[in-house]
Amino acid sequence: MFLCPLIVIGALLGIQTGREVEIFNSYELQFSILDDKAIRINADYFVTKQEQFRQVFPIYDFLGWYTVGHKPSMADIDVLQQLMVYNESPLFLQMDANEIPTPSRALPITMYESIVDIVDNQPQPMFIKANYKVETGEAERIAVDHVAHAATHQDGENSLVSHLSGQQNAIKMLHTRIKLLHQYLQDSVEGRVSKDHDLERQISSLCNRLPTISGQAFEEEFMTVVDKFNTIAAQNNHPPHGRLRRSMLA
Prior knowledge:
The protein is an alpha+beta fold. It contains 6 helices and 8 strands. It has 3 domains: 122 residues, Cytidine Deaminase, domain 2 (3-Layer(aba) Sandwich); 54 residues, no CATH class; 39 residues.
């Protein structure tokens, strides 16, 4: 019949309000390839999985399916006809794993709407491209940021090194910005740049909000942090380059 280029098929779940569709979740579907190379979705597995998701996410409906490929094929039409039993017009999300992302197309995915058109007096399922946009929640952004940072760490590095590296980068960025403000104020006093009173008021307000780094209370708290840092570094066999000292903040 036809060769099947599909390697994965999954269901898309979400909410539909009129013409606006929001996809929130997905799961992989079980399917089999028959002797004639046709694809058959495991209907029992699909129904069971839908019932399980309905118990956890009662407002999510089956909206469509996803797969991989360069463009829709007869195999996708065959899958569409099977899934139309559960949704009259399911969406079809196709990912091209071989496509190289570009600035104008960050994700190698294409979204299609499914329609039924009359061709030679016969109903024929078809796909038409649909517009979409990707939105991320705060929890997703935090998770992606965590994974991105974890991927940059070399083998053998532990969480302490990761944490200290992040702190070091933050301190470097803070130091660079403080130098920029200091240079502006110096140039302003010496007349090399025109004074911006609104900006100077903002700088003054920022300085007034900074905690004091002098006094007995700060000294005791700082030395406690120093002792903890040196102890943890020694226990993890990652001694700092020289002992952390009070003079580092001077």
